[in-house]
């Protein structure tokens, strides 16, 4: 049975003291142990950025690959060995800027991997430029007169791309993000978990205090139905995206099972693909 010690590396992360990414690393480690996954069956794949270093800090297989391409590599790993638990992790610039295209397609493809974004609304590694999730008007080194662009809503983007599991958390609550990561790994299909992970060095607006004061906890809302995609869109809109919990989940066939030759579909023909509107809804 795997222990936290088995997952630990003898390396001290070179993140700034207080960086939110420490909590995400601890939560992934704890989730893997709670799910009793052996380290040799766990892959942590990452891209470029401060958060991209995470794959070097866990005693598992993984690659620290090119900027924005971690999801492409993670999908390749999963297809090559479908028995592995594949988690892909990176930052908002890596995932929604440079790798935005891979994000949309991995989500709609519903490949069975877990994608964790450490969203700090800034490029930290390159010392504080605006990122795809920086709000309009945000002052950074690359936007000294205010960000002229509108930000991406990661949750609404994932909803639009028909991701089958969407959750959001905050680095200030390790217990909660551990639970979200466990749920994401258990989910059969593409699980997206956006985690607000404060950059204490370059982002003085979206701080731990900001999230503690402003984030809405969906777990406290008995009216919220995480199977209702329209409700999910509305909730994200109403809260300006500052919400945490399970945002949306819907079981649908994952990419591997949808491939010809799987699930008894060896003789799939064009006629078989004449699906009714109801069937399409349930895919
Ligand atoms: Fe974390 Fe920001 Fe430091 Fe990078 S620059 S390690 S994101 S606090
Ligand atoms: Mg970032």
* Class by SSE composition: alpha/beta
Shape designation: globular
Supply the CATH superfamily name: Thiamin diphosphate (ThDP)-binding fold, Pyr/PP domains
Question: What is the H-and-E element order?
Answer: HHEHEHHEEEHEHEHEHEHH
Query: What is the rounded distance between the termini?
Result: 36 Å
Q: Please, what is the average pLDDT?
A: 93
Specify the biggest β-sheet.
Answer: 7 strands, mixed
CATH fold type: Rossmann fold
The unreliable regions are none
How many helices does DSSP assign?
A: 11
Under the CATH scheme, the architecture is 3-Layer(aba) Sandwich
Tell me what you see in this structure.
Strand 6 (165-170), helix 7 (174-186) and strand 7 form a beta-alpha-beta unit. This protein has a seven-stranded mixed beta sheet with strand order 1-2-3-7-6-9-8, with helices on both faces. A two-stranded antiparallel sheet has the order 4-5. The longest helix is centred in the first third of the chain and has 14 residues, at 21-34. The protein is built from eleven helices and nine strands. Helices cover 33% and strands 15% of the residues. The two termini are 36 Å apart. It is globular. It has 283 residues and is of the alpha/beta class. Helix 2 (21-34) crosses helix 7 (174-186) and helix 4 (92-98) crosses helix 5 (100-109). It has a single domain, classed as Thiamin diphosphate (ThDP)-binding fold, Pyr/PP domains (Rossmann fold, 3-Layer(aba) Sandwich), CATH 3.40.50.970. Bound molecules: iron/sulfur cluster and magnesium ion. Residues 15-16, 19, 21, 50, 120, 124-125, 199-202 line the site of iron/sulfur cluster. Its cofactor is [4Fe-4S] cluster; thiamine diphosphate; Mg(2+). Pfam families: PFO_beta_C, TPP_enzyme_C. Residues 48-195 form the Thiamine pyrophosphate enzyme TPP-binding domain.
């Amino acid at each position: 049975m795997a222990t936290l010690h088995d997952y630990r590396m003898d390396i001290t992360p070179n993140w700034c003291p207080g960086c939110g990414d420490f909590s995400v690393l601890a939560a992934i480690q704890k989730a893997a142990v709670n799910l009793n996954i052996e380290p040799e069956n766990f892959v942590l794949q990452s891209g470029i950025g401060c958060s991209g270093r995470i794959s070097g800090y866990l005693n598992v297989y993984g690659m620290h690959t090119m900027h924005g391409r971690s999801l492409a590599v993670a999908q390749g790993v999963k297809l090559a060995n479908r028995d592995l638990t594949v988690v892909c992790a990176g930052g908002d610039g890596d995932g929604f800027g440079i790798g935005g295209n891979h994000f949309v397609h991995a989500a709609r493809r519903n490949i069975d991997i877990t994608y964790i974004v450490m969203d700090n609304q800034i490029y930290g590694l390159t010392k504080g430029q605006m990122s795809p999730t920086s709000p309009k008007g945000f002052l950074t080194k690359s936007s000294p007169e205010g960000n002229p662009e509108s930000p991406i809503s990661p949750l609404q983007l994932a909803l639009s791309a028909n991701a089958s599991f969407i959750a959001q958390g905050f680095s200030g609550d390790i217990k909660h993000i551990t639970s979200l990561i466990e749920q994401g790994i258990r989910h059969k299909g593409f699980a997206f978990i956006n985690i607000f992970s404060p950059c204490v060095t370059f982002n003085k607006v979206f701080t731990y205090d900001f999230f503690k004061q402003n984030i809405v906890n969906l777990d406290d809302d008995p009216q919220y139905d995480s199977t209702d995609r329209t409700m999910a869109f509305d909730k994200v809109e109403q809260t300006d995206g500052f919400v945490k919990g399970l945002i949306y989940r819907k079981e649908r066939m994952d990419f591997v099972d949808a491939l010809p030759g799987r699930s008894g579909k060896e003789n799939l023909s064009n006629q078989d693909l004449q699906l009714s509107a109801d069937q399409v809804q349930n895919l």
